[in-house]
Specification:
Layout: H1 2-41, H2 44-65, H3 75-100, H4 105-111, H5 115-126, E1 129-130, H6 133-151, H7 160-187, H8 195-216, H9 223-226, H10 230-258, H11 260-265, H12 269-281, H13 288-304, E2 312-313
Antiparallel strand pairs: 1-2
Helix pairs in contact: 1-2, 1-4, 1-10, 1-12, 2-3, 2-8, 2-10, 3-7, 3-8, 4-12, 5-7, 6-13, 12-13
Length: about 325
């Protein structure tokens, strides 16, 4: 009887978590369209700096309100943690906003479907883990669907649109390499400061690097940011604070509550919704290949998450 009562009490919390994860996928998909829109009206690197700066500021406020502490990394650990931040934020954003100046939001959303799969491959390569056959099959199907869109784009060949798609892949690779460094530190028994504190460190370091970039290497004067209308600032604030900072927290709590395998299934909605937002908001043209790719992404993601997304350890030779 007590078990039934306990289950009834936890059920609403679980439903709320599932709803929060779905809402996170919606705003993540919408964010691709917002980034594409922002780079068409202002300097791409300045828009990235503002978005990541808002994300870092939001996380710093949460750390202060929650009376948490920032990570106290030292020596080699500090160097590796900064390298991770530069890859996950600075390099990732620099490549991604450059890509969005050359490709469509629909293409970018489909390419982002490879992100969790690429994380799994990188983990297998760097930490001697073996990918299961259904994972490899799902990866091949998803990659095949994405390639259909890239190579059947009537405006592509190997010109600007194709270059933009490759830059999206490069941004994901930079992010995944940063994640690998964090995993390496965790395996070396480095004390974990907590997800919010760690995210705060990463986005603060990355935002400072972006700020230095536009100050030292930017081609557009900083005064151009202040001249943007309030609407642009509000959208960048939503993208940075709401999508990047709070979205990452919601995702982390979802993984902690229902497990990485079940939470990863929600990622399949990002390319589907991203393509839809690109068509509805930006009036981007869709082809039959976009729909074929979406089906391939859904099928491939389902195969990759079949049973469990955990990777089997590769036996030592």
């Amino acid at each position: 009887m007590k078990e039934g009562v306990a289950g009834a009490e936890t059920s609403p919390a679980l439903w709320n978590m599932h709803l929060a994860l779905m809402a996170t996928m919606v705003i993540w998909a919408l964010n691709v369209t917002l980034i594409k829109w922002s780079v068409t009206i202002m300097d791409a690197m300045q828009s990235a700096t503002l978005r990541m700066g808002f994300a870092a500021l939001t996380l710093l406020i949460l750390v202060y309100v929650g009376r948490q502490r920032l990570p106290l990394f030292r020596g080699r650990v500090l160097v590796l943690a900064c390298c991770s931040a530069l890859l996950m934020v600075y390099a990732n954003q620099m490549l991604f906003v450059s890509a969005m100046s050359r490709t469509t939001a629909s293409n970018a959303a489909l390419l982002l479907a490879l992100n969790p799969l690429l994380n799994g491959v990188m983990e297998a390569l760097f930490f001697r883990k073996c990918l299961r056959p259904h994972y490899l099959l799902g990866l091949a199907i998803t990659l095949g669907g994405v390639c259909l869109v890239i190579f059947n784009n009537p405006n592509a060949s190997w010109g600007a649109p194709a270059a933009g798609d490759l830059l999206v892949l490069g941004s994901m690779l930079a992010f995944c390499l940063g994640v690998v460094i964090l995993q390496y530190l965790s395996q070396r028994n480095v004390e974990h400061p907590g997800q919010i504190s760690l995210n705060t460190f990463i986005y603060t370091v990355g935002s400072v690097a972006l700020l230095l970039h536009i100050c030292l290497l930017g081609e557009v004067p900083l005064s151009a940011m202040a001249e943007q209308p309030a609407q642009v600032w509000l959208i960048l604030l939503f993208s940075g604070a709401g999508v990047t900072a709070l979205g990452a927290i919601a995702w982390g709590r979802g993984v902690a509550t229902i497990g990485a395998g079940r939470a990863a299934v929600y990622m399949s909605w990002v390319p589907v919704l991203g393509v839809a937002f690109g068509a509805l908001v930006l009036k981007e043209p869709l082809t039959v290949w976009h729909f074929v790719a979406m089906l391939a992404v859904l099928l491939g993601t389902a195969l990759c998450n079949l049973g469990s997304i955990r990777l089997r350890a590769r036996p030592a030779i």
